[in-house]
Specification:
The chain is built from two helices and eight strands, in the order E-E-E-H-E-E-E-E-H-E. It is mainly β and about 120 residues long. The radius of gyration is 14 Å and the shape is globular.
């Protein structure tokens, strides 16, 4: 039996914060279409990096309205950024070593309106 390694499984690259809601239980609200595009699950643990201020934090993803481009910092996460900031949202997987070399994450790169850019 081979050991497992932790690899990037899914990423939304440079999604723009559309809202910050301090008076919420917590989490990061994401457009459900964007979650589906890269395979991020509702309530999944995620690591978030704020490109604009360098903040990094863990939280969990929740579904926002489909097609809305939503990216809302909720609860304590609302202190980690502001509307207009660009985030990198990452999810991880435990992958057996013998599969790790060929494993490919699903990555979505977003434009200024939080629409997926075409893959090249």
């Amino acid at each position: 039996m081979s050991a497992a390694v932790t690899l990037l499984r899914a990423k939304l690259h440079r999604i723009k914060v559309t809202e910050a809601c301090l008076d919420y239980v917590g989490s990061l609200t994401l457009d459900e279409d964007l979650m589906d595009a890269v395979g991020i699950f509702c309530n999944e643990r995620i690591l978030v990096a704020n490109v604009d201020n360098g903040e990094r934090f863990e939280t969990y993803a929740i579904r926002g309205p489909r097609g809305s481009g939503a990216c809302c910092l909720n609860g304590a996460a609302a202190h980690k950024g502001k509307v207009g900031d660009r985030l990198i949202v990452m999810a991880w997987a435990q992958v057996p070593e013998d599969e790790a070399r060929s494993f490919q994450p699903k990555i979505g790169v977003l434009d200024e309106r939080n629409h997926l850019k075409p893959q090249v």
